[in-house]
């Protein structure tokens, strides 16, 4: 064992691998960049030692003796493949963090991590322990088909989540409105579902397969400013120009409304009783819709009380004239009489 020229470098590789694991854990999760540097340094050192002594992890160790030497050789290769997986995963985490893609961190990162560990596990089985990976993959394919049929609905949610992530229709923190009327802010996305925080401060859990089938409006893009429309009816005695100026003054006095873009007063129709107008104004985010609408209506009511405006009644509240009473037929009237109308003689 001592005479084996590969024994000493393999022991050094084992020591480097174990030291890298200890230092990696001591760094803590709050220092991802430091952990990545540690992973890369130890992985580079292990790779240099393997290359200097002509030992390649992707080749079966034919020169290894039995006993302790074989264990040291296999453990060195296992540690090298493990550090390779950690280095790749660390680079991926840093990439997503620098590109500020928090939603991909929940789905795509999990997918990449699973693929990395699966690839490393198959490599260890094939290159270190000599397991026929091809036969293993073929057998696992049959098992995968059986599991796929049993987990059809769950897999539908998983692949729908991947499709939604790649499409980037929304992200964490976006306020979305679905085709069925459901709306809220996206607070979490995972493999199975997407969670929304509604305006009533309730969490709505939507399966990804259902979410992929519904039409979606993202109120947070290109920004969170949101337009609101409010219809009002002003008495026609005010005149269109005076009504527009008074309504602009009402909107200008509201603190919940953004000044840029400026609010708009659009006349929709005019008749003998009322001038129908539409107030269009913008708020900072969808959560300010209700306070802004309440303030606009309150300011409008105050303006009407101060005499600057007069509201017109809604068309549904107009009183219709009562229908004329139906006169009853007289038993003594003659058929064809103007007072009773024509009445056929049933005795004929």
Automatic annotation (TrEMBL):
Q: Entry's SUPFAM superfamilies?
A: Mechanosensitive channel protein MscS (YggB), C-terminal domain, Sm-like ribonucleoproteins
Question: Which one Pfam family would you cite for this protein?
Answer: MS_channel_2nd
InterPro entries referenced in this protein's UniProt entry, alphabetically: cNMP-bd_ion_channel, LSM_dom_sf, MscS_archaea/bacteria_type, MscS_beta-dom_sf, MscS_channel_2nd, MscS_channel_C_sf
Report the transmembrane regions from the record.
Answer: 6-24, 36-56, 78-98, 110-129
Q: Where found?
A: Cell inner membrane; Cell membrane
Task: Please indicate if the UniProt record lists Nuclease as a keyword.
Answer: no
The Mechanosensitive ion channel MscS domain sits at: 154-221
The record's Gene Ontology cellular component field reads:
plasma membrane
Q: Name one GO molecular function term.
A: mechanosensitive monoatomic ion channel activity
Location of the region described as Disordered in the Swiss-Prot/TrEMBL record: 329-348
Instruction: Report how it sits in the membrane.
Output: Multi-pass membrane protein
Keywords on record? Cell inner membrane, Cell membrane, Ion channel, Ion transport, Membrane, Transmembrane, Transmembrane helix, Transport
Q: What is its main location?
A: membrane
* Keyword set includes Transmembrane helix: yes
Which proteins does it associate with, and in what oligomeric form?
Homoheptamer.
PANTHER family named among the record's database cross-references:
SMALL-CONDUCTANCE MECHANOSENSITIVE CHANNEL (PTHR30221)
Purpose: Mechanosensitive channel that participates in the regulation of osmotic pressure changes within the cell, opening in response to stretch forces in the membrane lipid bilayer, without the need for other proteins. Contributes to normal resistance to hypoosmotic shock. Forms an ion channel of 1.0 nanosiemens conductance with a slight preference for anions.
Recorded family membership: Belongs to the MscS (TC 1.A.23) family.
Q: Protein name, please?
A: Small-conductance mechanosensitive channel
Q: Which organism is it from?
A: Labrys okinawensis
Lineage, broadest ranks:
Bacteria, Pseudomonadati, Pseudomonadota, Alphaproteobacteria, Hyphomicrobiales
